[in-house]
Specification:
five-stranded antiparallel sheet; globular; 2% helix; 2 domains; mainly beta; Tachylectin-2, Chain A; six-stranded antiparallel sheet; Jelly Rolls
Length: 486
């Protein structure tokens, strides 16, 4: 799984995933839950000498998936192994693929191949390096995923794709009537810094696993990569990352997220300006966070959210980072997009604080593994079904949890294993000893066990809560499958 020890400051909700590095985020909202998918930069963490090697994109062969009901606390849904990875000893779903970059995920009603009735399916489009785009399908946003066609879906030998340097970075739009479109491409041909002409849009066919007709050019000024698409107030917003040329710098800047607008999903699109600067320009981040810029926007209720990546978390962890000699380990952040009355859109700030207002308060009265903050904890197991606490003191924290005095009677933990005796404490409102509301003694155990205790205080309202493990053994390890209040 290549999970690292989480070290995420209490109160800072960025990055949204801290146990693995996740780049090129893409988000979808389904049945009250947000799912975010991204390139698994942690595939590069495999190293025989125990140090962090450079992040080489050629190592990326899986996709991360995380989910949240509130946009503050996130559950690790594990890795989607798309290509074979000999270093990890794992076989991939797409046998023809060498890599899995920059996914785009959506759902739509399509005909069932056996019954013919219309059913909801999920579709994950991914880049096989820059050479082709593939598709996986599933009945669920978390899989299992299958390769429905056993080959790339979009290739350079297709009409309309011959002059696209980089066949990657897909984005997808599904209309209310089920009509769907895919946006992709990138690269800057020699001498074409101002108008690279390498972005495309194509209509998807009825089963979402092929294209219907020839792709159409999107003439995006100063294009580099990173297609995005959103429908905002009836208009179609195509967004992308600008290139690194001096011409782009003289215009609106290098590696910025720019956008164009159209009345139709396939254009023509009119250039409007910059949505978001490079994270390295943020007052909240280090100048070392300059790097390739990749984004996705998602509207939920009346808010428009910007998902983007930056190497800032790697810098904060103190890992070696040199933009001149190697690629950074990137991970995913969220901030708000402002939609102006004239239709213009802009991210005012990129921050460590991130989103502060949940789309709903978190419900602890069910078995879960979600968290917002933590220290000394990893995720492990198939589909990351285990929180691994380690050492003499480690914890996870949850933001804005809704406690009800008439419901909160017991604190329940499901332990997978423990290599030494320890104690799990539940805190409400902070990590001070006055905030402890329950404590469970954990025995040494190599098998699954459920442990529970009475809640010491009846609380009513919204609190930050913390689950802390402590032990006298510096090498202690506790595997926690889930916890809940009952």
């Amino acid at each position: 799984m290549n999970s690292i020890n989480i070290k995420k400051k209490i109160g800072d909700n960025n990055p949204i995933i801290a146990q693995r590095f996740m780049a090129d985020p893409y988000a979808v909202y389904y049945e009250g839950k947000v799912y975010v998918y991204g390139s698994n930069d942690s595939d590069s963490l495999i190293s025989g000498d125990g140090i962090y090697p450079k992040n080489e994109y050629s190592n990326i062969k899986s996709i991360n998936c995380i989910s949240s009901e509130d946009m503050l606390n996130w559950t690790d849904e594990g890795e989607i192994q798309i290509a074979d990875d000999d270093k990890k000893g794992k076989k991939g779903i797409a046998k023809w693929a060498a890599n899995s970059w920059a996914p785009a995920v959506c759902y739509n009603k399509v005909p069932d191949k056996v019954t013919g009735e219309m059913v909801i399916k999920f579709f994950l489009y991914f880049a096989n390096s820059a050479s082709s785009i593939g598709v996986l399908t599933s009945d669920s946003p978390t899989g299992p995923w299958t390769d429905p066609i056993g080959r790339p879906m979009i290739t350079h030998d297709m009409p309309g794709c011959e002059d696209v340097l980089w066949l990657f970075d897909p984005a997808v739009l599904v209309e209310e009537d089920g009509t769907a479109y895919i946006y992709f491409g990138g690269g800057v041909p020699d001498g074409k810094d101002i108008n690279p002409r390498t972005a495309r849009v194509a209509k998807l066919n009825a089963d979402m696993t092929g294209i219907d007709g020839e792709p159409v050019l999107i003439d995006a000024p100063y294009l580099f990569e990173d297609s995005g698409i959103n429908k905002i107030n009836g208009k179609y917003y195509y967004s992308y990352c600008t290139n690194w040329s001096d011409a782009a710098e003289r215009a609106d800047g290098k590696a910025q997220i720019a956008y164009m607008v159209s009345d139709k999903p396939m254009g023509p699109f009119e250039y409007k300006g910059i949505i978001m600067k490079n994270p390295g320009q943020s007052e909240d981040f280090s100048t070392g966070a300059w790097g390739n810029n990749h984004h996705c926007m998602l509207q939920i209720q009346d808010k428009l959210y910007m998902f983007y990546h930056t190497p800032q978390y790697e810098i904060d962890l103190g890992l070696k980072f040199n933009a001149e000699t190697g690629c950074a380990y990137r991970t995913t952040y969220i901030d708000l997009v402002s939609v102006k009355d004239d239709g213009s859109i802009v991210v005012e700030k990129m921050t460590r604080a991130g989103i502060k207002n949940p789309i709903k308060n978190y419900n602890p009265y069910k078995a879960n593994r979600a968290f917002a903050w933590g220290e000394g904890v990893k995720t492990a197991g198939e589909a990351a079904q285990e929180l691994v606490f380690g050492g003499t003191r480690s914890f996870v924290g949850l933001d804005s949890v809704n406690l009800c005095s008439d419901k909160t009677n017991e604190f329940v933990i499901n332990v997978i294993n423990s290599n030494s005796k320890g104690k799990v404490k539940l805190y409400a409102g902070g990590l001070g000893e006055d905030n402890v509301i329950a404590a469970i003694d954990v025995p040494e155990s190599d098998s699954a066990v459920m442990l529970k205790t009475q809640i010491e205080k009846n609380l009513d309202g919204v609190f930050d809560i913390f689950i802390l493990y402590e032990s006298d053994n510096a090498d202690a390890v506790l595997g926690l499958e889930s916890w809940s209040l009952d």
